[in-house]
Amino acid sequence: MIGSLRGRLMRKRATEVLIETNGVGYEVHVAINNELPGEGNEVFLYIHTHVREDALQLYGFMRDEERLLFSRLISVSGIGPRIALATLSGLSVERFAAAIEGEDVAMLSRIPGIGKKTAQRLILELKGKLPSIVPAKDTQYEDALSALLTLGYKKADIVTTLDVLNKRGIKDIETLIREALKYLSEGATGTSDN
């Protein structure tokens, strides 16, 4: 099984890339919201190798937590690689875990290919089984999460916001909360329940 790939990114499409390693090109399916570098640059991906009778497909992820969640998702009855990849295209690992733990059927149902019944099955089969996937956050993250929860924001929206700010390298608790409030008040996370 292929567990990871490091090589030159030769072609980049919305949901598929071509990575050349030692003269061999590997076609890898990726989530739409991936943060891959431009073509011609070196890239490293964690790989899930999916074997079927008629095909061997590679699915690539920037973070090992995404690969682990993908593996958990396809173990759920009725969830194939296409829907699992759509899930990771629409939600971060942290936001998905928050939706599962919070039993947020509405949020899960917004993912293409997942209806209300499938969302309920995901909750039933995955609730309590995702903490080992979600990376531990530092105390500033936990303090900011707690403060924003007391202000009445939804946990799933807070987790997504803090994940974005964490990727920007914001660690100071005051700056983290101030930027999170700005982000949440602008509705950047799509908090409306249409």
Automatic annotation (TrEMBL):
Residues 71-90, 106-125 form the Helix-hairpin-helix DNA-binding motif class domain. It is found in: Cytoplasm. InterPro entries: DNA_helicase_Holl-junc_RuvA_I, Hlx-hairpin-Hlx_DNA-bd_motif, NA-bd_OB-fold, RuvA, RuvA_2-like, RuvA_C, RuvA_C_sf. It comes from the Bacteria. Its main location: cytoplasm. Residues 63-140 are annotated as: Domain II. Residues 140-194 are annotated as: Domain III. Keywords: Cytoplasm, DNA damage, DNA recombination, DNA repair, DNA-binding. Coiled coil: none annotated. The keyword Oxidoreductase does not apply. Has three domains with a flexible linker between the domains II and III and assumes an 'L' shape. Domain III is highly mobile and contacts RuvB. Homotetramer. Forms an RuvA(8)-RuvB(12)-Holliday junction (HJ) complex. HJ DNA is sandwiched between 2 RuvA tetramers; dsDNA enters through RuvA and exits via RuvB. An RuvB hexamer assembles on each DNA strand where it exits the tetramer. Each RuvB hexamer is contacted by two RuvA subunits (via domain III) on 2 adjacent RuvB subunits; this complex drives branch migration. In the full resolvosome a probable DNA-RuvA(4)-RuvB(12)-RuvC(2) complex forms which resolves the HJ. Belongs to the RuvA family. The RuvA-RuvB-RuvC complex processes Holliday junction (HJ) DNA during genetic recombination and DNA repair, while the RuvA-RuvB complex plays an important role in the rescue of blocked DNA replication forks via replication fork reversal (RFR). RuvA specifically binds to HJ cruciform DNA, conferring on it an open structure. The RuvB hexamer acts as an ATP-dependent pump, pulling dsDNA into and through the RuvAB complex. HJ branch migration allows RuvC to scan DNA until it finds its consensus sequence, where it cleaves and resolves the cruciform DNA. This is Holliday junction branch migration complex subunit RuvA. It comes from Candidatus Magnetobacterium casense.
